[in-house]
Amino acid sequence: ILTMSLGIEIIADVCELLSTCVNWMGLGIQLGLDYSRLREIEIERHLNVSSCRIDMIAAWLRKEDKVMKKGGPTWKQLIEALIVIKEIHLSEKIFEKLMKQRKVSNPVRSEKKKRRRDLSTDEKRSVKKRKKEMKKRRKSSDTDSDNEEREDYKQTHRYKKRNVIYIESGSDSSDDDDEKEEMTSKVKRKIIESSFDSHESTNIKKRR
Question: Considering the entire predicted model, what is its pTM?
């Protein structure tokens, strides 16, 4: 918008923006207008500042004299000329107004930005959904693996128990039965001998 070429149709807007500019002749020289032309305007308008300023702006927008050598009638050229003649506050005011108009008068760009925001929010939501799904899958896989390990442990434990029971109470363990009988007989003998010994000792004490 700053480098856009301006035409005579926007003279009213430019005059409104430059309504506080008193040094119209210095501004005209910086914009590329000849001093002789500016002097003619001053004589014709009888030193009326507002009228002289309007004629100067019209000559600038019509691209007279050396305006095109300065870059042509653009907002950029006008702002730079105002800075040169020390009208910095006015140049800043024009720049801010142009930026506001640009934001308001460009609905296509604002719509594009809105769509980008919407797309970004949608992408964020999809990423969040994917993360949640991945977490659920991991949890389900972990639980499944835990269940499988438990089942394997149970099966192995049962197998061990069965083997122990089979070893302890097997039908083919005749030798084990014989060994058990021998052990029980030995134990019985020891019990009998110990009881006999204790009985004998009590009798001896009574005799004494």
Answer: 0.49
- Residues 61 and 67: their CA atoms lie apart, in Å, by 9
Compute φ and ψ for 17, nearest 5 degrees.
Answer: -65, -35
DSSP the chain: -TTSBP-GGGHHHHHHHTTT---HHHHHHHHT--HHHHHHHHHHTTT-HHHHHHHHHHHHHTT-TTTGGGT-SBHHHHHHHHHHTT-HHHHHHHHHHHHHHHHHT-HHHHHHHHHHHHHHHHHHHHHHHHHHHHHHHHHHHHHHHHHHHHHHHHHHHHHHHHHHHHHHT-TT-HHHHHHHHHHHHHHHHHHHHHHHHHHHHHHHHHH-
5-9, 51-55, 82-86, 155-159: least confident range: 155-159
Degrees, nearest 5: CA angle 111-113-115:
70
Among 16-25, 65-74, 174-183, which stretch is predicted with the lowest mean pLDDT? 174-183
Cα end-to-end span (Å), the chain = 138
State the pLDDT confidence band at 105, using cuts at 50, 70 and 90. very low
Positive or negative CA dihedral for 147, 153, 157, 162?
A: positive
